[in-house]
Amino acid sequence: MRPDLNETLARARADLRMGVPVVLTSGESAVLVGAAETIAAGRLAGMTALGDVDLAITGRRAETLKARAYDGDIARVAVPNGAALSWVQGVADPSEDLSKPMKGPLMTRRGGDAGLHRLAVILCKGARLLPAALVVQVKPDFAAVEALVSVDANAAAPFLEAAPVLRHVVSARVPLRAAEDARLHIYRPEDGSEEHYAIEIGRPDRAKPVLARLHSACFTGDLLGSLKCDCGPQLNAALMQMGAEGAGVLLYLQQEGRGIGLANKMRAYALQDQGFDTVEANHRLGFEDDERDFRLGAQILDRLGFGAVRLMTNNPAKLAMMADCGIAVAERVPLKVGETPFNARYLAVKAEKSGHLF
Ligand SMILES: Nc1nc2c(ncn2[C@@H]2O[C@H](COP(=O)(O)OP(=O)(O)OP(=O)(O)O)[C@@H](O)[C@H]2O)c(=O)[nH]1
Ligand SMILES: [Zn+2]
């Protein structure tokens, strides 16, 4: 009955989302970790009582805060004695960077190993929270005494690096406006994350490159008709073209906000209202420009029996990733629809900074 590592990691992410700390271990050392976004004042006080608390943030966030990141992609900010929760949130969350700049330089730690801090931030990202985690050393038996989830970092590393394995759950017919002969396939990742969907139009010939689109979920664009991006029109145009050709496959991947989740995407939108572009906003939050894992898409195509695609995209990263994952890209089919006065700047930044081909 004992949970395996995938299950333990999923529990750790769920606990962090709930504001419950988890323990990470590496050999003899153990740390207690809480997500900066969700931890309550009482638990912060409890962590402070245990010793010197670090706030682990990404190198990206450290750059914005002008803090030295001695560990490259990670900075270990020393939490001052008696610091309130609002101080922690001010470091983690960029929403008030401009109206309430942090006072004084942030002291960051150097020396020692930042491996557990890095894992703490990865778990926060996986939980779709702000990438910032409180970290304090504890005794190895702390998790058992406090009934907390404990993750062995070294054993977990390969699970975190690999693309999650997907399990096919069910397929059924769903007649669409774009194509009456359509089927929806559901895939469930074994790491406990959200399900991904494949919409198969007609019965594409597996021996030929299939007209395909890897579409990342966009609640605002796909469902609400947001004019701030081109996702809704792209989704629609891709399905319509597949319908017109009588065959195709559209993968609907749960990678909202280029993999940072809807709450963080809305944080990015709030920063864009302050004048930052889509890439700068991600960086100020502590994320990379694009946190998506396109290996998932390649895995689904492979499962469906497709080895080659005519890929509907303007994004060169998607083309490269398909080829890396063993799916041949026979052709790029441009998908340039839905430009509005509200998204013209966004599309221009994608072309300038992310190399999009428009
Ligand atoms: N973080 C962030 N995500 C955004 C923003 N605007 C849109 N998105 C997300 O970006 C993703 C867009 O994905 P795709 O439609 O696959 O777009 P793409 O990578 O530009 O590639 P193609 O459309 O194939 O050319 C969706 O997950 C949106 O939710 C933004 O300003 N910030
Ligand atoms: Zn969108």
Automatic annotation (TrEMBL):
Pathway: Cofactor biosynthesis; riboflavin biosynthesis; 5-amino-6-(D-ribitylamino)uracil from GTP: step 1/4. Transmembrane segments: none annotated. Binds 1 zinc ion per subunit. GO terms for molecular function: GTP binding; GTP cyclohydrolase II activity; zinc ion binding. Its EC number is 3.5.4.25. The keyword Glycoprotein does not apply. Belongs to the GTP cyclohydrolase II family. It comes from the Bacteria. The lineage of its organism: Bacteria, Pseudomonadati, Pseudomonadota, Alphaproteobacteria, Rhodobacterales. CDD domains: GTP_cyclohydro2. Zn(2+) binds at residues 218, 229, 231. The active site is at residues 290, 292. GTP binds at residues 213-217, 234, 256-258, 278, 313, 318. GO terms for cellular component: cytosol. It comes from Sagittula stellata (strain ATCC 700073 / DSM 11524 / E-37). It is an enzyme of class 3 (hydrolase). Pfam families: GTP_cyclohydro2. This is GTP cyclohydrolase-2. Catalyzes the conversion of GTP to 2,5-diamino-6-ribosylamino-4(3H)-pyrimidinone 5'-phosphate (DARP), formate and pyrophosphate. It catalyses: GTP + 4 H2O = 2,5-diamino-6-hydroxy-4-(5-phosphoribosylamino)-pyrimidine + formate + 2 phosphate + 3 H(+). Keywords: GTP-binding, Hydrolase, Metal-binding, Nucleotide-binding, Riboflavin biosynthesis, Zinc. One of its GO terms (biological process) is riboflavin biosynthetic process. Its cofactor is Zn(2+). Residues 169-334 form the GTP cyclohydrolase II domain. The keyword Hydrolase applies.
